[in-house]
Amino acid sequence: NNFLSFIHVFSILLSCIELLFHFNKPENYISMYHQEGSDMLYVGGQAMIYVLTFTNRGVRNLQIPAASDQTAIDTCKAKAAPLELECDNFITVIQKVNDTMIICGTNAGSPRCWMLVRVSSDKILEFCCTIASASDISPPYPSQKSISLPADGSLYSAMSSVAGHAGSIRRTFGSQKLLKTENVWLLNPQFAGAAIMPSTLKYKEEIYFFFSELNKTARVDEEPYRARIGRICTVDEGGIKALLADSWTTFMKARVMCGAGNTQQQYNNMKQAVVLTAQDKRAGVLYGLFSNAWGRTVICAYSIEDIDQAFSTSKLKGYSSPFIGSRPGMCVRKNSTAGGHNDIKNLGVIRYHPEIEDVIRPVGVAPLDLPTDDQITHAVADIVLAVNDEHYSVLYLGTDQGKVLKVLHSSEGVFIISQYSLFHNEGPVLNMAIDSQKGHLYVGTAMEVQRLPLADCSRYGDTCRECILSRDPYCGWDRSRRKCIPIPPGYNRSTSPREVLVQSNTSIFLPCPVRSFHATYRWVKDNCVKNYPCLFSGDFCVLGPAIDTPLKEGVFRCIATEDGFKVEVISFRLVNDGRLLAASLASTLGPSILLAMATLWLH
Ligand SMILES: *[C@@H]1O[C@H](CO)[C@@H](O)[C@H](O)[C@H]1NC(C)=O
Ligand SMILES: *[C@@H]1O[C@H](CO)[C@@H](O)[C@H](O)[C@H]1NC(C)=O
Ligand SMILES: *[C@@H]1O[C@H](CO)[C@@H](O)[C@H](O)[C@H]1NC(C)=O
Ligand SMILES: *[C@@H]1O[C@H](CO)[C@@H](O)[C@H](O)[C@H]1NC(C)=O
Ligand SMILES: *[C@@H]1O[C@H](CO)[C@@H](O)[C@H](O)[C@H]1NC(C)=O
Q1: Is residue 31 part of a domain?
Q2: Which parts of the chain span the membrane according to its record (predicted)?
């Protein structure tokens, strides 16, 4: 496989600086908490909280025992023989709500949560106050998966279903009303993740929950799982006394498909989900990790805009009457007129018809075409602004063999940039945390926790060619030092691409200097696959107005290809007149000036 030959296989050499922490005993269930920008990682294990501080000289660790009392353990063992190994205090939740750190454990079948007050001078964690709703936040046994997400001063918790427990999505802590899902809304949910959907209007902020539903009475020839997205509004304060009093009034759910088109080959069991969004814009991508009945794992990518659109416009399943007034389930500001006739009607619609008809399908209508057969156990993702001023998604996929694959996802498809083998152990990756701000990835297995740099550029060799062929968007070639280096934080990209303000009527000609007559030159727009030829060439390959050349707005790059090796020679960002420009380079230029200046710029 040609594609694979470019994958850089790294074995992390741990002899110099060990950014690795070994557990004293295997930790088969680990929870993690990491705050962006810090060097600390909280790891919850069996009857133990590990507070790890990663420094240039190694990992400092503070281990805080958190055992259940013996009577709880004895009671657990007496009543739940098959779960005997789970009769201990497994730390399942470590989260910060406002400034309060909340830590929850299974406590041998009767969950408890504590608020962490501070780390005292002699490095002991001081707790106060248990939290009443502990059994809604933490499961009683670690094999029952739960998700918790802090948002806007409240804690949101999703609990997977097990025998005798329906599973739920709840607001569990905070000053807002504590709400829950109605049992009929979820069919044996198994949760895979949750994410905040930001909005410029605060009251429109939503939380998405990702899960699979399991139909236990499905026939053997039927697929028992269905992947789902459920959503609620953070402003939701529940219904009225007679209807949805303590339940969400904004819950809706949708079916999610992951498979090739309408074929039978579908991956219906969503195991994990991560979302990449812009700070306050509802745009981005959802990555779901799915498996099929044979346990094969794939990744599907979805557009957040598509999902948002479906929830705001789709018909509701089983409901055909027109909506009166506002659409049911939408986020609305708390308003004194609430409780009016239409609102009550809408509550009824949501109560009985929370599912939308539209089905969410992946971008490219199929799973990402990853050239690997590895079983993926965990995924995290990052958005990278590369030297060429484009945003790229990078996925980090943990495998059942303790490897981490670093995968570039762009409009052109997926590409495995590199693969890390985590030397000391071959067990599955159980958990990961990413810190985009500091550029770190934390990877946990049952035996150890490691920190890796997101930008690992020195490993791509000593030539510009190798650096660029790695396609690692975290890295760039430093011409003066002749090294492949991480793109420095706050790197000033004002030289590339150059901004040009286009007046609606003028013709624009973009020059690209021809430096090598052995190379072929062409233009691409917005990194799209479509190429534009030179209008005339000589010393310059010029892109100018022609049929099919939309020279109005966007990023235009001149690409030279020689010997299979591509370089970007120059790029321009055309901005339509009337728009405000931030960059100082922006200029209003006529065609002749533009051509003349090109020569100046290049010396
Ligand atoms: C979180 O902070 C906000 C504003 O500072 C406050 O209104 C809210 O009550 C706090 N929530 C909790 C759970 O302490
Ligand atoms: C589960 O599958 C059975 C058998 O196909 C079907 O009759 C039943 O309606 C399904 N249940 C749900 C909630 O979809
Ligand atoms: C309440 O809602 C009505 C109609 O939906 C709107 O006209 C009014 O401005 C709202 N009031 C507040 C205080 O938001
Ligand atoms: C980037 O560089 C340009 C020109 O050197 C300068 O004017 C601008 O202030 C710089 N921007 C930042 C954010 O440093
Ligand atoms: C732009 O073009 C229109 C018609 O094509 C013309 O009427 C107008 O005067 C032009 N404006 C400028 C600034 O050249």
Answers
A1: no
A2: 580-602
How much is the pTM? 0.79
Expressed as residue numbers, the domain containing 532 is: 496-602
Å from CA of 64 to ligand 2 middle: 47
Instruction: Determine phi and psi for 70, rounding to 5 degrees.
Output: -60, -35
CA proximity to 10, closest of 372, 383, 381, 417: 417
pLDDT per position as a tens digit, 326-359: 899 999 876 645 556 667 888 999 999 999 999 9
User: How far does the centroid of ligand 3 lie from the alpha carbon of residue 342, in Å?
Assistant: 14
Ligand nearest to the CA of 503: 5
d(CA 573, CA 162): 54
Residue 513 lies in a domain: yes
Please name which ligand lies nearest the alpha carbon of 151: 1
Residue nearest to atom 6 of ligand 1 (CA): 153
CA-326 nearest atom, ligand 3: 5
Q: Rounded to whole angstroms, what are the CA distances from 214 to 230, 241, 264, 302, 548? A: 15, 31, 18, 22, 50
pLDDT at 119: 66
Ligand nearest to the backbone CA of 343: 3
Distance CA 302, CA 284 (A): 9
| SS3 call for 198 | coil
Residues, the chain: 603
Who lines ligand 3 at CB under 6 A?
333, 335, 337
Question: Which ligand 1 atom is at minimum distance from the Cα of 154?
Answer: 13
Q: Probe ligand 4: pick from 487, 584, 585, max atoms within 8 Å of CB?
A: 584
Coil vs helix vs strand at 419? strand
Provide residues with CB under 6 Å of ligand 2.
187, 215, 217-219, 222
Distance between CA 495 and CA 492 in Å, rounded?
8
CA neighbor of 523 nearest in space, from 542, 495, 501, 508: 542
Q: Are 253 and 355 in contact (CB under 8 A)?
A: yes
Segment 106-115 shows an average pLDDT of 92
pLDDT of residue 600: 32
Q: Which ligand is nearest to the CA of 507?
A: 5
Q: Which residues pair with 59 in a beta bridge?
A: 54
Give CA–CA dist 212/272, Å, rounded.
Answer: 10
Q: Which residues on adjacent β-strands are paired with residue 21?
A: 449
Ligand 2 centroid from CA 215, angstroms: 6
- For residue 10, is it within any domain? no
**Nearest CA among 191, 95, 89 for reference residue 142:** 89
Q: Sorting pLDDT into bands at 50, 70 and 90, what band is 404?
A: very high
φ, ψ for residue 585 (rounded to 5)? -70, -15
Number of domains the chain is built from? 1
Check if the beta carbon of residue 540 is closer than 8 Å to that of residue 466.
no
Over the stretch 548-563, which tens digit does the pLDDT of each residue have? 666 777 788 888 887 7
- CATH classification at residue 526: 2.60.40.10
The residue whose C-alpha atom lies closest to atom 12 belonging to ligand 2 is 215
CA of 216 to the centre of ligand 2 (A): 8
CA distance 297 to 545: 47
In a domain, 179, yes or no: no
